[in-house]
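Researcher: Please predict.
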Amino acid sequence: IRTGLEKPELVLEPGRALISSAVSLLVKVVAVKSNPAEEIVITDGGINLLPFAPYEIYPIIPISNTENENKIIEIGDPLCMEADFLGERRLLPQMQEEDLLLVMHAGAYTISQSIQFIKPRPGVVMIHKGKASWIRKPETFDHILALDNFDLDI
C-alpha cells in the first residue's frame, strides 16, 4: 500500500490463476505394482517436482498405451514419502514400464518450488510455435555436489 494517495492501491500477484495451464510435467513409468485390489504405477517424477500434488487434482493424460483397457490406477512417485502420489484413483489405461504420462496444469511456481531430492531434477523445456528450447538444462550429480567441500582436514 502506497502512502500519500487518497485511496490505497492494492496490487495482486495472480500466479497460478493465470499460468498454471502453461506448464505440464511429463513423467515416465518406471515400475508397475499390481495386486487384485489395486494397481500402483511408479513414475520418475515426484512431489519434489510438483509440490502441490498432495493438495491438487491434476488432469493426467496417458501419452502411450492409450488403447489398453481402462482401470483404476494409483500414480505414485519414487520418493518414499507419505504424500508420495501424483494422482490417486485415476481411471487410465493399464500402464507398463516406459509408458509416458502428462500431468497437466502443473504451472506457476512448480519450477521455483521444486527441490532436488534423491536424484537430479530434469530439465525444463519450453515449446513455442512448435519449437522446443531448453529453459533449464537437466541437473547432474556433478551440479549437486559442486558446492560441497570434500577436502576437509578433520
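Model: The radius of gyration is 20 Å.
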